[in-house]
């Protein structure tokens, strides 16, 4: 990470950690080293708090560093976004309750609960974040919990949750894709292809017993970080995405190629019957 950006991130962490409500501050995303940062990379800060931080305190920190601040955003998770004064560098600050993130780690590492796609993204975020402030060592302890060996039961739960919805059950994504094509419903088609890919990548990453990095650079992550992967996975993903805007039989063929390769891989690893 660029030294000036690192120093600025640390300055922000010090400002947030001076608030009585804040337990820890971490840097996430590519600036923390999960991927090589580029010109589009933000400063992603995660502010962990014991109780809600007054919006006025957040606004003061943002206004001290920016003339284009959006504070109190609740479109996704609670957050503030702003552009650093006299630059094009974007800061994205996410505010997370200590109890909430602890439960997210417990959900996957101890209860082994899966989702449809992106099952372990918060686990990855905690594993890879760079601790900038940690009042009593709480975040260090949470990172240690998150970095324990990946449970085989979690892998199995993710596979059991996500594999049937690809094409096995009546409402499988592949069948919904076929219906969308018949109706010439490109909005539905786009939505179902995205959902299918989300479950596909959740399976591939879980079988490798790795935490999921989120929606960005997934092909790169699987290529570089997953020792085992379906045959021709990059070609099959690219083929499906290329066919989707046109609709028709090309999408159906793309789905079949992608899922046939996935199932052959899973079968070879002993996760599906021969």
Spell out the key features of this protein.
Beta Polymerase, domain 2; 274 residues; alpha+beta; 6-stranded mixed sheet; 12 helices
Give the helix/strand layout.
Elements: H1 3-17, E1 22-28, E2 43-49, H2 55-65, E3 66-73, E4 79-84, E5 90-97, H3 98-109, H4 121-128, E6 130-134, H5 138-146, H6 152-162, H7 164-167, H8 173-183, H9 186-207, H10 218-225, H11 233-243, H12 249-268
Parallel strand pairs: 2-5
Antiparallel strand pairs: 1-2, 1-6, 3-4, 4-5
Helix pairs in contact: 4-5, 6-9, 8-9, 8-12, 11-12
Low-confidence stretches: none
Secondary-structure element order, N to C: HEEHEEEHHEHHHHHHHH
Estimated radius of gyration: 21 Å
What structural category characterises the helix and strand content? alpha+beta
In percent, how much strand structure appears in the residues?
A: 5-15%
Intertermini distance: 47 Å
What count of structural domains? 2
CATH topology of the largest domain: Beta Polymerase, domain 2
Whole-number mean pLDDT: 93
CATH superfamily of the largest domain: Beta Polymerase, domain 2
Shape: globular
Number of helices: 12
